[in-house]
Amino acid sequence: QVQLQQSGGGLVQAGGSLKLSCADPGRTFTKYHIVWFREALGKKREFVAAVSWSGRNTYYKSSVEGRFTVSRDNAKSTVYLQMDMLKPEDTAVYYCAATESDYYYELEAFEYDYWGQGTQVTVSS
Questions:
Q1: Using CA atoms, how far apart are residues 89 and 76, in angstroms rounded to an integer?
Q2: Tell me, what's the pLDDT at 105?
């Protein structure tokens, strides 16, 4: 069973950068596609970015494209979300999720098999 452990996040000023990590200590997630979601206070959980199991394919929410970069290092069983030029509207709890589905970039949140514990990102203006 995949267990996703998140790290990173915190408080940053607008225009700053943060890097989130999502790791599987059991080293079983190399066959899973990984997706990042975020959930702002009072809002629905939304798709942010996705990376295929190989790392060759990536997808982004339009409002973060060009500012966020998703990548993975399968040798370390870790996926990263580099967030640059952060804006106050990026403030949310960020989650990573795993699935084997080839439609990993367009599933509803409930369709993902495994989730990280979430990490808070706060961007001050």
A1: 31
A2: 86
